[in-house]
Design goal:
single chain; mainly beta; six-stranded antiparallel β-barrel; 1 helix; about 35% strand
């Protein structure tokens, strides 16, 4: 018989205080197209759709970055562009390329309006919260 962690899940979800939206290109319209005259891939303007909104937590990754960060820092220091998203289990599973938009944050007002690309579909799934690696979008 498994351990019932539903009360722990409710407590953890109560600590999620960033209102976020999850956007996804549901129809695959944003894929690159091949320009046959030049042989180069050209990004297409897709029509992403909001597939979820709710409470989550966007936090700087507290661990040492194990990959080269966008700001060029080495793995010896935490990256200033390495973020982790903590999503409730009720949120849909994320996919690489999904975008999380922070609508508002009670913890850090500077996060409001930030957009993050999901770098990995799922770093880990704990029993009470789902963790995903995020990268800041410019």
């Amino acid at each position: 018989m498994g351990l019932d962690l539903s009360c722990v899940q409710r407590v953890v979800e109560g600590m999620l205080d960033d209102r976020v939206e999850l956007w996804r290109d549901l129809h695959g319209e944003a894929d690159d197209a091949l320009d046959e005259s030049t042989g180069k891939l050209v990004p297409q303007a897709g029509t992403p759709q909001r597939c979820w909104e709710g409470l989550a937590a966007i936090v700087l990754s507290g661990q040492l970055a194990n990959t080269r960060a966008l700001d060029g820092m080495l793995a010896e220091a935490p990256s200033s562009t390495s973020y982790t998203g903590l999503l409730p289990l009720t949120a849909p599973r994320t996919r690489p390329g999904d975008v999380l938009v922070v609508v508002s944050s009670a913890r850090d007002s500077h996060l409001s309006g930030f957009r993050f690309r999901v770098g990995e579909a799922s770093m880990a799934s704990n029993t009470v919260v789902r963790r995903v690696r995020l990268q800041i979008l410019g």
